[in-house]
């Protein structure tokens, strides 16, 4: 029963992921800039994780005696997080809910396979066997089928999403690299929550610096106080904090493969709902049977990659 409840937390995190992207995208429209909206989101999430870290660890920062044992790259998870979140905010208005999940997910899976195959970042190498290659082919085939069905609804779709799809794949690379970096910090700190806080702290520091250094971003700071909108416009950071905290909590109990599958299932499901109902200022787009088939092939590929 406890395991089922833990997986329900992950499914909820996956379902909320497209919601977070949509909320942050609407905040971007209000603030006129993706960097400032990302900064606000991370500040809210950082505050939530600070409270959680104090409650679970009794202190925000780790003991200094462990710091010299940590490789330099392990501190870069916050950089990956800042790039990934800002990238999704840019992608959502161009690609919609499902494709903003699918393209980064494709990049995440490809980079995860590379990390596993070559043992990067100190991980244990996992050979690239026939099952994993088949899984990759199914993922790519499912994505192409979904895109093909979508293009038949709108002839301009293929031309519009070409460059943005590449950006989505590159953004997905960061989502694969960040957990490995944060995982190393979690081992050194003996706390996944504290490692997530450090990651958010790094991301927030980078984004705040960019906002202060870039004149166009700095001029938009007063818009934060003047912005009017629904209360949930400011909840993107809370969703992000829940996402990170739930994965940190559940992964040690169930393993990476099962958590990834459940999370992706939630992301794809909610992304389809966002598109079909036209939430967050998007035009409603009916999901066609071929698109559902593409999603099924894609999910099958993920199962092969993560389980076999």
Summarize the structure.
The chain is mainly alpha-helical and 308 residues long. It contains eleven helices and no strands.
How would you describe what is shown here?
By secondary structure, the protein is mainly α. It has helices at residues 2-31, 34-57, 77-118, 130-153, 157-189, 192-213, 215-219, 222-226, 236-254, 256-277, 289-307. Helix 3 (77-118) crosses helix 4 (130-153), helix 3 (77-118) packs across helix 5 (157-189) and helix 10 packs antiparallel against helix 11 (289-307). It is globular, with a radius of gyration of 19 Å. 46% of the residues are buried.
Task: List the topology elements.
Elements: H1 2-31, H2 34-57, H3 77-118, H4 130-153, H5 157-189, H6 192-213, H7 215-219, H8 222-226, H9 236-254, H10 256-277, H11 289-307
Unreliable stretches: none
Query: Which term fits the overall shape?
Result: globular
Quaternary structure of the protein:
single chain
Gyration radius, rounded: 19 Å
Order of helices and strands: HHHHHHHHHHH
Number of strands: 0
What is the beta-strand fraction?
under 5%
The number of helical elements comes to 11
What do the pLDDT scores average to?
Answer: 79
Euclidean distance between termini CA atoms = 25 Å
The class by helix and strand makeup works out as mainly alpha
Helical content band: over 70%
* Major sheet attributes: none
């Amino acid at each position: 029963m406890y395991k089922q409840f833990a997986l329900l937390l992950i499914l909820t995190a996956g379902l909320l992921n497209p919601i977070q992207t949509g909320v942050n995208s609407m905040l971007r429209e209000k603030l006129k800039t993706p960097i400032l909206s990302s900064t606000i989101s991370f500040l809210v999430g950082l505050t939530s994780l600070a409270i959680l870290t104090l409650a679970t660890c009794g202190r925000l920062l780790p003991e200094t005696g462990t710091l010299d044992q940590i490789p330099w790259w392990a501190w870069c998870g916050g950089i990956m997080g800042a790039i990934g979140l800002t990238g999704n905010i840019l992608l959502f208005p161009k690609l919609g809910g499902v494709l903003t999940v699918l393209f980064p997910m494709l990049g995440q899976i490809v980079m995860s396979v590379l990390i596993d195959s070559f043992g990067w970042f100190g991980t244990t190498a996992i050979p690239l066997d026939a099952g994993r290659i088949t899984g990759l082919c199914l993922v790519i085939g499912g994505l192409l089928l979904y895109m093909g069905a979508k293009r038949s609804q709108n002839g301009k779709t293929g031309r519009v999403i070409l460059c943005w799809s590449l950006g989505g794949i590159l953004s997905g690379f960061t989502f694969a690299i960040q957990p490995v970096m944060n995982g190393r910090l979690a081992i050194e700190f003996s706390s996944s929550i504290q490692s997530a806080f450090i990651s958010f702290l790094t991301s927030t520091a980078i984004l705040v610096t960019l906002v202060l250094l870039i004149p166009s971003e700095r001029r938009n700071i007063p818009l934060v106080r003047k912005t009017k909108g629904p209360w949930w416009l400011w909840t993107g950071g809370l969703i992000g904090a829940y996402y990170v905290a739930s994965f940190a909590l559940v992964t040690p109990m169930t393993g990476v493969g099962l958590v990834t599958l459940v999370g992706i299932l939630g992301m794809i499901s909610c992304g389809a709902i966002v598109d079909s109902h036209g939430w967050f200022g998007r035009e409603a787009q009916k999901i066609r049977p071929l698109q559902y088939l593409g999603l099924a092939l894609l999910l099958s590929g993920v199962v092969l990659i993560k389980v076999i």
